[in-house]
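User:
I study polymers; will you set down one protein's sequence and backbone structure tokens?

Assistant:
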Amino acid sequence: MNWITNYVRPKISSLLAPREVPENLWIKCPETGEMVFHKDLEANQWVIPSSGHHMRITAKERLKHFFDDGAFEEIEFAKVPLDPLKFRDERRYTERLKDAKAKTGLEDSVLVATGAIDALPIVAAVQDFSFMGGSLGMAAGEAIVTACERAVAERRPLVLFAGSGGARMQEGILSLMQLPRTTVAVQLVKEAGLPYIVVLTNPTTGGVTASYAMLGDVHIAEPGALIGFAGPRVIEQTIREKLPEGFQRSEYLMEHGMVDMVVHRHELKGTIANLLKLLTKTPASAVARTPATSAKKPVPAIIDNEDEPVAEAAQ
């Protein structure tokens, strides 16, 4: 055995060989082009420190930063048919769903959970854009309905983080039926006298803005979020005019009365906690003593996908 050939040379080669660097080790700021170390970005809740640009964040990470001590309990919702229309374009819809579930670890684009912010028990629903663009399908609609039902049952405020590209085309009319279903569910929360706060994240577009995302008691937007029904390019091509600078962005919409306030991600928890205390008339000193009790009233039934009233409303 040649010691130099078999031992020394491989050691030297390993030291001099180029090392592979993970692609996601550094993340580029879309606004300034600055490269930010991903660990620093993650620790800063995915907000670029220098420019303040808000990157997209997963549903679980958002809830971890939002709830007290990062503790929350996920709420399961009823199962729905996976591919009711047997839809296929370049790939089968079932294959796309399988990939999205493996990528995100979620059952669909909406995650519902219970927890507390500043010791105030609430129900929260978060749309995850990384799951097929946060699109609204039957499962996502069922999750929103479940969140509303749980809020009414446990007499808790409801906070919803909207982030979606719109309705899910692979489910056709069944996706559009979720607009009236979720609208009815939100109305039940309002009739129960419970606060409903919506946080609009980047982007919130399409059918989501035509239903539950625009029905909140208070609408909060993250800085720079794109919010609207159709995108700016589609609108420009339709009206054949140049849109104003920043059109459909959070700041522009707040100036024109579509959004109540624009709040930095680091300040969302404190802002929402203060709003909920005001809306529930809960003294700050009494929040910690407020128990998360079960329902005092029966939960109103939510109409199902196959009910005729929903089909009529969707037409």
Q: What stands out?
A: The longest helix spans residues 138-154. The beta strands are 26-28, 35-37, 72-74, 110-117, 120-127, 158-164, 196-204, 218-221, 261-262. The chain is about 35% helix and 15% strand.
